[in-house]
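Good morning C.,

I know you're traveling, so I'll keep this short. The sequence:
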Amino acid sequence: MQTRRDFVAWLSAMSLAGLTSPLRADAEAEEQAAAAARAWLGLMDGGRYGTSWEAAAPAFKSAVPAEQWDQAVHSVRTPLGRCLSRTLRSHKLVDSPNGGPKGHYVVLQFETDFEHRENAVETVTPVLGKDDHWRVAGYFIK
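The tokens, ready to paste straight into the viewer:
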């Protein structure tokens, strides 16, 4: 399915380290972004994939329709089983991912143990919205 591949590539591009222009560290912004990411991951952990789409950033929602998100995330997350632990390993404030719109993003990497897979790396990229709320714009599991 070409659209799914495009979507996965977009999410990867939003989340991977080849990002442009790191911004000056802002502990408060990074903390708020991490809190938003953890809340969003809680939706994912609870299998509330539709709600995770609704809670995502507008760019995320315009890149993939809700039905496609539901199918894609079911195919990736369901085989992993329950989330057993998640530890924030790195965070980086950037002004835009490669090819992405300008803005304030925080790229967060979590080391996550799932029921059927240990040592997964989840990359979650929240973006600061015009309303000053952080919402997830990218998600990738490696």
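Safe travels,
E.
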